Amino acid sequence: MRSIPRRSFLARSLAAAAGLALPAWARNGLAQPGESAPTPAAAFDSLRVERPSAPPDSLREGFPSVLLAAAGDTVLGYNLQDHFDAQLAAGQTREQLWPLYFACVRQLLDQADLSIVNLECGFTERGEKLAKNFNFRARPELVEILKHGGVDVVSLANNHIRDYGRAGVEDTIATLDRSGIRHFGAGRNLRVARRPCILERQGLRVGLLGYYFQAPPDMLEPAQIYATAKRWGAAGCYQNLDCIRAMVRADVEELIPRVDIAVPFFHWGKEGSYEVRDYQIELAHLCVDLGCKAVLGAHPHRLQGVELYRGAPIFYSLGNFVYGGIKEPSDRLSALARMRIGRAGSIEADLVPLHFTTWPERAFQPSVLDGVEREDALRRIAELSRSFPATLPQLATYLGDAQPVPGR
């Protein structure tokens, strides 16, 4: 993706303002020919977070760093596919609809060196439906929505990658490969599913790992979701905390010497809950202790609190993003996480608050919050983060008393 100018984010936070002027087609949920993607990005308004070992000017011009943008659960099938088909029937063309769903956030993803989402649906029209609570899939052609949205890489380590069996996993990976979208967290066996996705940006090597894990009583899915030595599926362990500890430790220790920046993406926690479970905290801290620069999470379909641990941001649940799993949710709040990470270990991070859908005006289109809505959203996320010893400076300002920033 296009890189933003490499000047201090702290300086930018004093210089730029958020504020969205959406064209009519984006407000109304319909694309019109010839109009470009809307919405300037909100200012990156966090304060700098630096590990003590990093030089104080490590994020200034001339020092290598990478801007990552990460978002949560993304489902392009189910209600979204129905909406897409209804717009086709109403006279819209595919070329008009491909960019629609990411229109209000596309510029934020374009500004990043690397944009990541959790793809919680397969791209397939084959396969046998697995017996479980919900099964998500999308027609393979709808991968164009990801391409037009500016997504670089997706995590497949989740409870829906094998909703339609081996054929569903095979078709999803083949579709992503043909489209040039990188992926991690699933594969033809567990060894392949555990492989990191390593990409180079701004001269730095970024390594991504993906895992699906839920401890009892959170787990509601069949064990068949997981890859084994002979089965296609997701990376992770079925309800066995000792197993996932050992797996994560082995994979992270093997990855750290190969990359400048390591980031795991977990699918974990209790669905529908704002509560961060002890096992989420344990696994996240393990990753940071081993050298990961940040930790990402999804699955609860709710935003959960953000912790700052030894200088590394931990986004326990990023909520929903371009999510066709529900039309009119009781809680529309979501967020895009942004992290500027330098080779020497310096990290800046913040959240861009979103409403992930507005039915029917902006169906399945995340929109950036502004003004009072944005302030209320950040205040709410700060409250969800209050129990942690430290959180992002952006959020700590809403808690009344500044939280300490622990370091290595």
Automatic annotation (TrEMBL):
This is CapA family protein. Pfam families: PGA_cap. CDD domains: MPP_CapA (cd07381). It comes from the Bacteria. It comes from Eiseniibacteriota bacterium. PROSITE patterns: TAT (PS51318). Belongs to the CapA family. SMART domains: PGA_cap. Residues 1-26 form the signal peptide. Keywords: Signal. Residues 67-325 form the Capsule synthesis protein CapA domain.
